[in-house]
Amino acid sequence: MHKVAFIGLGRMGLPMARLLLKAGFAVTVFNRTRAKGELLAAEGATVADTAAAAVEAGGIVVTMLANDVALKTIADDVIAKLGKGGLHISMSTVSPETSRELAARHAAAGSDFVAAPVFGRPEAAAAKLLRICVSGASGAIDRARPLLEAMGQSIHEFGAEVGAANVQKLVGNFMILSAVEAMAEAFALGEKNGLDRKAMNAFFSETIFACPIYQNYGRIAAERAYQPPGFAMPLGMKDLRLVRDVAEESRVPMPLADLLHARLLTALAKGREDYDWTAIELSSAEDAGLR
Amino acid sequence: MHKVAFIGLGRMGLPMARLLLKAGFAVTVFNRTRAKGELLAAEGATVADTAAAAVEAGGIVVTMLANDVALKTIADDVIAKLGKGGLHISMSTVSPETSRELAARHAAAGSDFVAAPVFGRPEAAAAKLLRICVSGASGAIDRARPLLEAMGQSIHEFGAEVGAANVQKLVGNFMILSAVEAMAEAFALGEKNGLDRKAMNAFFSETIFACPIYQNYGRIAAERAYQPPGFAMPLGMKDLRLVRDVAEESRVPMPLADLLHARLLTALAKGREDYDWTAIELSSAEDAGLR
Amino acid sequence: MHKVAFIGLGRMGLPMARLLLKAGFAVTVFNRTRAKGELLAAEGATVADTAAAAVEAGGIVVTMLANDVALKTIADDVIAKLGKGGLHISMSTVSPETSRELAARHAAAGSDFVAAPVFGRPEAAAAKLLRICVSGASGAIDRARPLLEAMGQSIHEFGAEVGAANVQKLVGNFMILSAVEAMAEAFALGEKNGLDRKAMNAFFSETIFACPIYQNYGRIAAERAYQPPGFAMPLGMKDLRLVRDVAEESRVPMPLADLLHARLLTALAKGREDYDWTAIELSSAEDAGLR
Amino acid sequence: MHKVAFIGLGRMGLPMARLLLKAGFAVTVFNRTRAKGELLAAEGATVADTAAAAVEAGGIVVTMLANDVALKTIADDVIAKLGKGGLHISMSTVSPETSRELAARHAAAGSDFVAAPVFGRPEAAAAKLLRICVSGASGAIDRARPLLEAMGQSIHEFGAEVGAANVQKLVGNFMILSAVEAMAEAFALGEKNGLDRKAMNAFFSETIFACPIYQNYGRIAAERAYQPPGFAMPLGMKDLRLVRDVAEESRVPMPLADLLHARLLTALAKGREDYDWTAIELSSAEDAGLR
Predict the structure, then answer these.
(1) Which site among A237, A246, A248, A256 would you substitute to test the D interface, given the most D Cβ atoms closer than 10 Å to its Cβ?
(2) Separation in Å, CA C7 to CA C40, C55, C102
(3) Quick check: A226 and A281 in contact, CB under 8 A?
(4) Which residues of D are less than 8 Å from A254 in CB distance?
(5) Which of A49, A222, B245, D102 shows its CA 20 to 30 Å from the CA of B51?
(6) b/e string for D185-218 if b means 16 or more Cβ within 10 A?
(7) Model confidence at B13, in pLDDT bands (50, 70, 90)?
(8) Rounded mean pLDDT of chain D?
(9) Architecture, CATH, for domain C166-287
């Protein structure tokens, strides 16, 4: 079995790499701050000093990085080292454009590229509960599948157009924040009419909206449990910006995405960088004179 | 056991009255068009010719009518006839203001009033799957409970302020249409990037949004199954108007509710009266040049 | 010359009635609080104790009241007293629907009705600088014209459909507040980039936006001269509500009107009842973290 | 007198360079397509083959280019050639960030940079009616002033922060399109209520909105004179994108700018690239079912 390079050991990458180790893959890890890699050494990982050193020619590389720039920064080394027959499984939340660009560069170098972004917070990653969306050439997806199955509870294919899974991931985050905004306005109206926001949320999350997003985010919003953040405001801003960029390039007006972006901007302008992104809810309360 | 009067045998009222009959209640029904009542005669219902004739002094009246005006229209007769010791269970989707006004008038006449609006479409009503929100004096709710339990799968109390359940119902409908708008924008963006809207919906409705609203409305929107309507556009408009009215009176800005209202207006302006309200989705597609 | 009845001596009505007196009309005034009428007695007005007492059969009545309800409240008496050959010049800012309804009732009683709402603040009224929009039967407008010319600097006809002038007035107020919102967002962006809002406004109001609205409201917004109000927040809310009502009835989505309405609601929720409506500007500043 | 280099002879640059020639400046012009330059040769201009060739060491360069990228593309050559004592007058509509970046690079090379964007269409440029906003070091502005006075009817200073004039220009374009949106919604409401859009516009542009923007754009919108475009849709999109970029960086939520951006996207999605940007008006009409 080829060794697997895993690049990016942040809050998501670390538990994901650990799952690969647990599943028996030989994993070489690389992270900008080496200490994160050392955490996995005791569990069997080899720790590399550079991205290039982690990659084996013709092998498989998994990347889980903070954003498009971070991914592009290591891409040169990865593509050069990987060479013919290699496979890059890109799991970061990035723009479809970045995936298309990297896939083309990989193709030119004889290697494959699949986009495989994930839904789920760090706790979900640790519990192997991630939902993984994947797109790219079907042969490449087949090759990636054993690794993806080691890291998530379900794998969802979105076809050969390599950016498709990224679009699905981005609109998913957009839909999550849309649900938050809906709850925010609903709770504000309820509260001003004497209802208890926890009771409101209990009803919805047990009945017509009995699904993870409303249950998690509804609880966070009802209790205003914004610190420490599960998904911090600037990360939400990054994703909504990507949604708006894709929307502009695709010529798709998205007024609800614009509303959410304005809410995030307001939160940042008011100094809420280290709040969970659910805290956009505060805008509805403040505009209603509730705070 | 007192006889129960059931007023309003529309698409919701008819299956609800039937559940009361099945549960063994003696039910006298009244509907503006008598034919609807006759349908239940074979199942044991008594059919009255007027609202007043259906009501027994000191008894229980259930109303399930189209809107605030329809409810207020029969209220005079109901209140007069019901008198001391009576109970009015108001299950229509109306404004909290109407409930507060009727509750006051009932109190003046010595009778009780509870608001008990429901979530669920006609099929859900027939299958005893409605979710019932209820508010009012706790003694009155206790008295209403056996009937509510005969008609729904769960009963959710929202306290003594009689309009509270109406607010919960209205914001619920607002949240449902918010989910539709989120899917509409997401699907438009996906489609312009080569994704299949059914595949997009399948992922969401099986994973992070695996709950009735996203499953039902996601399917309707993905398949554009807008006719015949499950919940027609003008009904959606009525409910969003009520949301906006309460928001204005309560001084709660709701930009997302405004967006949904504009979507409904567009659909009506384009002649989609007899489409399911999910068809607000078409605006996103049209504005993106997809149709 | 017939005597003219003038009903409603508020901040606008008083200077308007005075202009009629100055122009030589015999005017009988009526106001709910009689003291206002007494102010004009010294200038030649007759003061009546009731609306009906002010009106002469077959004569002319001018009304300038706070809203639709106030106008409808006195309408019964006016129509009854005026009778055949009378003319009602309705100058209040009301809905086109109210004008249509009153015109029909006047027609049934043999009298005429024209809608003649005005643009301009009390100072403009005093200086005979009002702009008057008028709609109704052309014969009735001809009969009204000498009075209108005594009260405004220009008269603008909008045809025989009696509600037309009201629509023009309402969209005018909508356009004014739209200009305020545009300036508010522009000033917030400028201020956060180090520009001076007064300098920004000076440029616009001297060049491409050198017209009364931008000059007046730009100055108010740049200086935040919100108290005492020239046009108080609740009046703005009343007019935007009318705009939204007409939009809903006409099936015209107006997202900008919705934005303005939300701004007004926010201002009211934050306790700014006695601010000039230009103070919706504060929302942009607050959401940008500038206050 | 130093020779002046003028780079960029598009629809705006050409008439502006001509004004410099008329005012007696010795002008060397450069344009990517040389033919544009030849047009001015007969009027006394020297035509250069490269940007660098047009620039004189220590002299003055005026640039009027399509966007940030075009400006940055020629900036290397300009800065290198201009050297100590030179002055760059940048008149393009670009982001304040670009101005700040270029000003820093000029400073490092010993030359000065002022931002001097303009308001006005090509006809206004030809008639010396442009309004010029300028920011930068006061000494540099003083040196630029004779040229600016030769090209515009008025010069407006916005201080030493070099990006300030760009912000003023961008928010100005935002305010212009805001006025268009306000008229669009107003006209749609009017039209559905039987008013004539030309009559509506005539009133506004002669009275409370009697200023160039409402007069020009009101006429274009009332007559739907969208082709040929005075300012084409993609140019409007470019400017609104810059507004949104600055807003995001500055953390200033601008919901009205978002609405305008969505309108532009809709127009582009519907294939209206070669329409005047005023044609965002069509969205209001279409959503109201008027087309």
Answers:
(1) A248
(2) 13, 9, 16
(3) no
(4) 262
(5) B245
(6) bbbbbbbbbebebebbbebbbebbbebbbbbbbb
(7) very high
(8) 97
(9) Orthogonal Bundle (1.10)
User: What distances in angstroms separate CA B260 from CA B1, B71, B237, one per listed residue?
Assistant: 46, 26, 9
Q: Is the pLDDT of residue C121 over 80?
A: yes
DSSP label at C2?
Answer: -
Closest by Cβ to B168, choosing from A96, A200, A251:
A200
Q: Where in chain B is the domain with CATH 1.10.1040.10?
A: 166-287
Minimum CA–CA partner of D171 in chain C: C186
The pLDDT of residue A3 is 84
- The predicted pLDDT at position A2 comes to 64
pTM of the predicted model, to two decimals?
A: 0.97
Chain B: closest CA distance from residue C253 (Å): 5
What residues have CB less than 8 Å from A178, skipping those under 6 apart? Answer: A256, A260, B178, B179, B181, B182
Per-residue pLDDT band at C1 (split at 50, 70, 90):
low
Q: What is the pLDDT of residues D232-255, one digit of tens each?
A: 999 999 999 999 999 999 999 999
Q: Which residues of B touch A185 (CB under 8 A)?
A: 171, 174, 252, 254-257
Query: Could you tell me which residues are beta bridge partners of residue D62?
Result: D6, D89
pLDDT at A1 over 80: no
What per-residue confidence (pLDDT) applies to B3? 83
Please give the CATH architecture assigned to the domain spanning C4-161: 3-Layer(aba) Sandwich (3.40)
Chain D residues with CB-CB distance to B283 below 8 A: 287
Which residues of D are less than 8 Å from A252 in CB distance? 265, 269
Q: Which of D176, D204, D258, D282 to mutate to test the interface with C (most CBs of C within 10 A)?
A: D204
CATH code 3.40.50.720 region(s) in chain A = 4-160
CB contact under 8 A, D258 and A258: yes
- The contacts of residue C106 (CB under 8 Å, 6+ apart) are C79, C82, C86, C88, C112, C113
* Arch. (CATH architecture) of B4-160: 3-Layer(aba) Sandwich (3.40)
CB contact under 8 A, A241 and D248: yes
Give A7-33 pLDDT, tens digit per residue: 999 999 999 999 999 999 999 999 999
Cβ-based interface (< 8 Å): residues of D facing A: 241, 247-248, 251-255, 258-259, 261-263, 265-266, 268-269
The Cα D161–Cα A119 span in angstroms is 44
For residue C3, what pLDDT is reported?
Answer: 83
Whether residue C256 and residue D259 make contact (CB cut-off 8 A), yes or no, is yes
3-state secondary structure of A28: strand
Residues of chain C with CATH 3.40.50.720: 4-161
Q: Does the complex come out with an ipTM higher than 0.95?
A: yes
Put simply, the answer to whether D253 touches A262 (Cβ < 8 Å) is: yes
